[in-house]
Write a structure and sequence with these properties.
alpha+beta, four-stranded mixed sheet, four-stranded antiparallel sheet
Length: about 550
């Protein structure tokens, strides 16, 4: 089945099994929804792009922790919003979405509307949307956006916002009553809001995520081990430079604070759904089954209903938890050398790890911690913030780059954070062994001693070789170019049997190969020996 027809749960399972194309499909299916929500929530394209990037790169290292593949979108939205909150708090600001919608965010998408009649309806309701949304606070606008546009269930919305099911349901009830007071009514207003075009993720953001996907699922050749991290940094720079252009007239360098910002259409890339090869499939394929019509997403909530029984994956948290983990040691591009090779034992390097966590819920009993390496992504190297791991070479005597990632999960809040560094493990192998043939001399001619059962004229030749670095453990193999897969002798010295199949002299290129069992490195030496058969002329 093509990836585009598979559910989120199936794509998550495929990605865990090593299918990078499955994760690419997840990314293309949801990136515009996540980015659109962040732009409408923060009104800051730069912050929206950064939070979207963090959400998808964090998901790469957390696929095994997704309890239900149907909730991938909710997980991405929650992670992206937490990242945005972190950045705003770091700047001494907070999310306080400015009132109303700007003209740039009121464009109607025919694909989202579904019909020309709905396009006309959404266009007509536009002025009322400005008034309706302008009356909503940040929490109510988030509920409206996540239900009507992202298509999430009330349970998933509560998870994204870190609120309880009851609180979220109460907000939806108030939203519908307020929408009922408009001239067109609640149904038309909600359909119009759902029909607004997505603010598409910018090209630089998409490139940064796709480069990260390539690095995660298709590790580069060791000789090119540094180009992908550089590519990610370059693509991210494009996001920062290209996403925001003069959000406030004449002040392009204004920091991302939560004040009223005027967005021009030129600042945003709106998706009408008419053509894009990586536009997501219909949301109903993978999202909540509550209702296909956006107006029904907030329907039937006027009468109180009991919340669903909470499961561990749906346990609401009281407030968004800004969980952040940072790798303190080693620093990226650090190098570590293995010990001397020992026969039968992989060469490893001892690497000390240390990370710190901020923003963890104080009531958490224990954080779930997992260090992993790109060389063996399925193995957990360490389950504590601080410790030492042994990193091996990908092949004997081959320098190896390990992408180390730590993922920390707060089990009480489902908050997840990750951080990564790249380190180089260098081998400590001696030079490859050398060998020389001491007998016979190169160019020697020997006479056949008789005819074998296979009618070949055979000649026994005494051979000898030596290696200055042999400690007695080296392995020797003698062979001839006339039968390269045939082992003539598996010792440094002895007798080999050469041959001629006719009465004409036959030249053999005789080769001895020596192998160091500790490093699997080899050395060879060759000589030419001619077999001159003794044939009787009858």
């Amino acid at each position: 089945m093509p990836h585009a027809q598979r559910s989120d749960a199936e794509l998550v399972a495929d990605a865990i099994a090593g299918d990078g194309a499955a994760f690419t499909m997840l990314f293309r299916r949801h990136v515009d929804t996540v980015h659109d929500h962040l732009v409408r929530w923060t009104r800051d394209p730069r912050l929206a792009a950064d939070a979207t990037l963090v959400a998808f790169t964090t998901l790469m290292g957390s696929l095994g922790e997704i309890r239900d593949g149907r909730t991938v979108l909710a997980w991405l939205l929650r992670t992206a919003r937490n990242r945005a909150v972190d950045e705003l708090r770091g700047a001494g600001a907070s999310v306080a979405t400015p009132p109303g919608l700007t003209a740039a965010l009121l464009a109607v998408s025919p694909a989202r509307a579904g019909s020309e009649q709905r396009v006309a309806e959404a266009t007509d309701v536009g002025s009322e949307l400005l008034q309706l949304v302008g009356q909503l606070d940040e929490r109510a606008l988030s509920v409206l956006d996540l239900t009507a546009r992202a298509g999430l269930s009330i349970t998933d919305v509560a998870s994204v916002l870190g609120s309880s099911y009851e609180e979220t349901q109460l907000v939806t009830q108030r939203l519908r009553r307020r929408a009922d007071g408009t001239r067109h009514g609640a149904d038309a207003s909600l359909r119009a809001y759902a029909a607004l075009a997505d603010v598409r993720a910018p090209a630089g953001l998409r490139a940064a995520i796709e480069v990260a996907i390539d690095e995660r699922w298709a590790p580069p050749h060791p000789h090119h081990r540094w180009w992908l991290p550089i590519g990610v940094a370059a693509a991210l720079l494009l996001v920062v430079l290209g996403s925001v252009r003069a959000l406030v007239s004449g002040t392009p360098d204004t920091p991302p604070v939560a004040t009223a910002v005027a967005l021009d259409a030129a600042d945003l890339e709106l998706v009408d759904g008419s053509s894009s090869e990586d536009t997501a499939p219909a949301p109903t394929d993978t999202r909540s089954d509550e209702a296909e019509d956006p107006s029904e997403l907030l329907e039937a909530v006027d009468t109180p209903s009991a919340p669903p029984e909470a499961t561990p994956s749906e346990a609401p948290r009281t407030e968004p938890v800004a969980l952040v983990v940072s790798v303190e040691s080693p620093i990226t591009q650090s190098s570590f050398r293995t010990g001397p090779p020992v026969s039968g034992t992989p060469s490893v390097a001892a690497v000390p790890l240390r990370a710190s966590v901020t923003g963890a819920n104080p009531s958490s009993d224990a954080l779930e911690i997992a260090w992993r390496s790109s060389v063996r992504p399925d193995a957990v190297l360490l389950s504590t913030l601080t410790g030492q791991v042994m990193l091996s070479l990908s092949a004997p005597c081959t320098d190896t780059v390990h992408g180390l990632t730590i993922t920390v999960t707060d089990p009480e809040t489902d908050a997840v954070s990750s951080d990564s560094v790249s380190v180089l493990v260098e081998h400590d192998c001696p030079p490859p062994p050398t060998v020389r043939v001491t007998a016979p001399a190169d160019g020697t001619t020997v006479t056949s001693t008789g005819v074998g059962l296979d009618r070949r004229r055979n000649a026994d030749v005494a051979v000898a070789s030596s290696s200055d670095t042999d400690d007695g453990s080296f392995r020797y193999r003698w062979s001839s170019d006339r039968a390269p897969t045939t082992l003539l002798l598996d010792a440094a010295s002895g007798t080999v049997q050469l041959w001629s199949e006719t009465c004409d002299p036959l030249v053999h290129v005789l080769t001895v190969q020596v192998t160091d069992p500790r490093t699997q490195q080899t050395g060879t030496a060759s000589i030419r020996v001619t077999v001159d058969p003794e044939c009787t002329v009858e």
